[in-house]
Amino acid sequence: MPAIRKNAESEGAYEAFEEALPRLRKGVLRSVLRYEKKQFRVMFGIHMVDVHVSILSALLAVQILRTFEPSPSGFAISALLFEAPTATQKFLLAAALALTVFLLNVFAACLHAQKIEREMLLVYRIQTKLASYVQRFVFAMSRQARVRVPAGDITNLAQNDARRISEFFAHAMVDFPILFLSVAVVVILMRVMLGPAAYLGLAIVLLQIPISSAFSWLGGKLHGELMRRSDARVSLVSEWVQAARLVRYFGWGERFAADIRARSASEFRQDLKVKGQYSFAFSLSTSWSFVVCLGLFAGFLWFQGNVGASEIFAAIWLSSILGHQLNPLPWFVAILAESRVGARRLEGLFRLRTQVEEFEPLEDVARAAAQVPSQTLKALASWACSRPSSLRFGYALEGVTVKFEDAVSPLFENLSLVFPAGALTAVTGSVGAGKSVLLQLLLGDVVPTKGVVWLLVDVAPQHAYEGLFSARVPLHTPEVLEFVRGFETYVPQEAFVASASLRENVPLIYLDSSAEFEDEAAVVKSLEAASLEIDARTFPDGLATELGERGVNLSGGQKQRLSLARSVFRSQDPGVNIILLDDPLSAVDKDTERLLAWSLFDGVWNDGSRTVIWATHRLEFLDRATLVVDLDAVKRSGK
Q1: Which of 303, 366, 371, 612 has its CA 20 to 30 A from that of 504?
Q2: pLDDT at 455
Q3: pLDDT tens digit string along 588-609?
Q4: pTM of the model as a whole
Q5: Following CA atoms 231, 236, 240, 241 in sequence, which dihedral angle do they give, to the nearest 10 degrees?
């Protein structure tokens, strides 16, 4: 596999995702064709030589028969070499021709093997690259775009659709044009060798083109519906897996099972239609060479009345070559239809808005960015590289309005707030007040409809001797977000748990297979700060305990504390001094909440350099906060 990967990467001329996205939106198939055109030329050359070597071997095989015919009706090598060949000369010539035919077939087989190897590499490369583009796009998608695309659809796009597109290019893109070229060459040879009877064979061959076109149209319709039903099934199964415990607790198992069976049966019925269409087309194509051969024999009887052995042999062999080229035609048509459906689905995904594109129409942010001196970001980046721990960050919301698409009224309207640097700010409010959205606004995940969110940067007091540095820059620009995300950690309301061990889940090193993590003490320290270390002792294998997919072996409170431990582990880096917490204590009991408040707010995050913004619906321990923002009161006051 490493050798295949190296080969694939060295031959592919794919662009980076940002440069490739405009092309992918215009046409996925055209983009892949552009990237792989050099490889297609090589494969086209190999296949052309392969086909013509097979045709040449057929012509030489005909010459073997004509060598022994008393008066050959067509061109004969024996008549060219000898005026009156003896039996010995005929035998030697036939043996030489037979050996040449054998060697040509061996050469054709070698070429075919080379073509198959290149096809395999092409399937791997195209599928891997398209899946990579899908992955990168999912990372770059705007929040509104993510809502529109279910996880099941993305899974199918990255696996099934990318696979079908890669198979089309690897197996049909080169073979399809060569099919027509080889058919044209064979038909010309038939006309030269078999006379007017070839016209009847050509008519039968041409009749297959409209039939295949009809099957292509039908296959596209059937396969599009199949993928729609497949998406629905995958999405339902994904929901069932995520809610497995609730399904069991509330007795929804039979209902989910019935729904999954119904959708699977619907998908199966549609798959039967697709397979039936393909099977009928394949059976028709398989018998087509026989129909062509019968047409040629009928032509012999009609136009010539009698025919020699070499003509019969030529008709059978050339018809078999013709059949060999025509047999895959229904499969080409089917895979073309499938790849077009997959390409349209991928293009539909790629045409959704990215987060960067959501920033572009922000006129308020653009005006604010224009007021920031061009050297400010460079100075921030330089300071961050040399003295990251000396920087402190705050936020200021200036006239921010957030109105989601299709919403009747805005969630926030003309909201102005300040989150001081180095302070613990608690954000409270009723359910639906917008606490989580406010944090996502500070993360850059939600884009303001109007107004500006400013990132405030200054130097921590203990580093003031290095020279006071302060700046404010609009947060919702790609450059500022890329800069600030190196300094922040976030605890979401719903914890992400990887299907890995507890030791791997805290630093998430499993994402980097080359990483070597040996600082187990740092993991234990983070678990202690998150009040999870005692629980870890009860796990069967301690830190090596596998947590299962989506943390199936953990309770809701344990998941939240694992998420807190991960944030504590990251904040051990002196440069990470922005901590955003989205109601992280909602699933723990009061005693654990008290321990966490003491451990985190009075302990590891209480050094005056970290900015902690804590969204909570519980009013206990608000005395730890430097500032309390009540969103309900802020909305009522209009400030």
Answers
A1: 612
A2: 92
A3: 778 888 888 888 887 888 777 7
A4: 0.68
A5: 0
